[in-house]
Every structure is written in structure tokens, then in C-alpha cells.
Amino acid sequence: SRLTGFPVMLLLLGLVFYLTIQGANAPSRLLSRWLTALEEPLRGLLAGAPWWVQGAVVDGIYRTVAWVVAVMLPPMAIFFPLFTLLEDAGYLPRVAFCMDRCFRAAGACGRQSLTMAMGFGCNACGVTRCRIIDSPRERLIAILTNSLAPCNGRFPLLIFLCSVFFAGSAAGGALLLTGVIAASVGLTLLVSRILSATVLRGEAVSFALELPPYRMPQIGRVIVRSVRDRTLFVLARAAAVAAPAGVLIWILANVKIGNTAILSHITAFLDPAARVFGIDGVILLAFILGFPANELVMPLIVMGYLSSGTIASGVDFASFRTLLLANGWTVQTALCTLVLTVAHAPCSTTCLTILRETRSAKWTLAAVLIPAGIGLALCILIHCMFTPTG
Fold first, then answer.
1. What is the arithmetic mean of pLDDT over 261-275?
2. Please, is 97 exposed, middle or buried when counting C-beta atoms within 10 Å of its C-beta (0-12, 13-18, 19+)?
3. Which site in 126, 178, 341, 344 is 20 to 30 Å from 350, CA atoms measured?
4. Cα(189)–Cα(16) distance, rounded to whole angstroms?
5. What are phi and psi of 351, to 5 degrees?
6. What is the mean pLDDT of residues 135-142?
7. Could you tell me the pTM of the whole model?
8. 287-317 per-position pLDDT tens digit
9. Closest C-alpha among 368, 329, 345 to residue 288
10. What is the DSSP secondary structure assignment for residue 279, as one 8-state letter?
11. Cβ atoms of 55 and 254 closer than 8 Å
12. Rg of the chain's alpha carbons, rounded to an integer?
């Protein structure tokens, strides 16, 4: 109904997010410990190989893929089945009905709300889900704006910044994170409106939406389908991209020019430009090297500040905050990092999915530049606000 539609929708989707974040914490830690324990046996299998082969394989490929799996698998294994249960129960068409007026006002389609919500689990899956939108113009708007919904790979850094750095408590962090998610939805609507009024001008197409009766979902089939078709598919693609990225990261951190690693040279080179955006060279390089998978950004920041040769096998939030403060982090730095975490170029998996769905390098490039441009512009604005005049 008009009275209860939006509150119930927000409550259910908020419950899905809460269960995903809370439920994934323990499994992620346990999976991380298991995968870390396999490093030494793997290193033992390569005992006769040169040191650089051991380093590239164990500290580069294996550790990077292990981090991606430990961070991605538990949230996706919870989020996708829960979301699919709502779909199988007949509730998601009602979400599209509730949100249709907002998205039509933005020149888009109500079904974009479903693709955006799927993007909170994985942007690549959200882009694929855009097939449910019949209008090519509105489908393209949904694809170009989907990465403005922060995926589960960005949630660890978002949770840290909201709950530890800003709020200082779990309750305050949860409230602030809810506000960040709401802001990302508002940003999606704003950018959709701008696109529909400019390069993708046109009237919003009406669609006939049949509201099916509520039904009891077939839980077993839903879990199998969501894990097989969504969770494992996205995880395999992300791991395949993270493996070569791990080699590159290891080379940059361990090959030295003079007495300094290439990684440190690059961060020093990027630092002046990064200061314009209210961050430093380590943070900027972490977002660049995190292109294969968003899960890599947080451990890359740790690795950059510690000048270590490998990605950290685990990140403790309390020690992470101490490390950041020791390296000159301020409220401005944290706020700009928060903005970039929400609005930056989509990961490589999402870019490949956009290219496959649009069959256009032009629109794939636009999908990269739009969120990245918005994020950097907002960071410049924040930096100007915090910089004293005169």
C-alpha cells in the first residue's frame, strides 16, 4: 500500500544487508585462517624452485586469490540466496512497483531498482540483471549507473570507515553505513536523471508489471541456483582476474630500483596528484591496483604503509586505524576515501560484463569514467572545503 510499501521495502532490504554483513564476519575470518594455513604446505611443494618463483606463486598469486575468496565468498553466499528467496516469494516485483515512480522521475525504469539492489551484492551480477529491462535506452542507463551501488567487495572498507574511524561504535557505524547506502541510491537517481536528459534523452517507457501472488519459495532449489549461477560464477571470474594481479603486485613490491621498491617509487610519484583529491599516493595506487577486485584496496593500503613485500593475510580494524593515523590520516582523508569507495571505476569483472552486455567499447569506457569522475570531483570539493583560504 502507499502507507506501508516503502517502510516494508526498506526494512526487508536493510535486513538482507544486516544479515549479510553480520553473518559473513565469522565465516570470512575462519576461511581466511584456513587459506592462510595452506601457504606453508604450498611453499614446501615449491622448495626446489627459485625464491622468486616461490614469492610470485605463494605471496603473489595464492595470497591475492585467497584474500579475494575469503572476503567475497561468505557475503555472496548469504546475500544472493536471500535476494533470490525474495524473488522466488514474489516480493521483488513489488519493489519495482514501489520504486517505479522515483525512477520514472529520473527518466529511468522501476525495474532498475532490482538491478541496483543486485549490484549491492556484485555489480557484475547487477549489470547482467539489467536484461530484465526491455527498453534499450533505460537498460543502458541502468548499466552505466550500477557501479554506484557499492558491492560486497567495498563493504569491508566502508564498514571500517563508518564504524571505527567516524562513529566509534557498531550502532553508530550501522546508522552511518545506512546513510551512505541511501546516498548511493540518491546518486544513482541523480546520474540516471542527467543521462536521460542528455546523451540518453528520451521518454521513460511504461511497462506492464504483473504482481504475482505471494508463494512459499522452494528454499533448496533457490540456494542451489543462487550459489551455482551467481556466487560461484562471479567468484571464479574474480579469482581468475586476481591471479595475474597478484603477480603484478608482488613484482612491484619486491623488485627494487636502487634500494627502494617500485611500489614506493610509484606512490611517491602519485602523491602530489593524490593530494589534490584529499588523499595520498598510497591510497590512490591502492584503488588503481584494486581494479581487478575491490577486495584488494584495503590490504593494499596496509601493504603500502608498512612497505611490506606481500598483501597482508588479515586486517585487524583496531591496528588498521592506528596505522592510518600514524601515516597522517585526518577526517578529510577518511571522508575522501569513503567517497572514492562508493564512487570509483568498476572492477575488471564488471567492466568485462559491461563490454559483453553492451558490445560497445564506448559505453564500457563511459561506465568507467562516470563513477570515477564523480568520485574524484567530490573529493576535490571536499579537499577545498577542508583547505583554509587565504
1. 92
2. middle
3. 178
4. 22
5. -60, -40
6. 90
7. 0.82
8. 998 888 887 888 888 888 887 777 766 556 6
9. 345
10. S
11. yes
12. 21
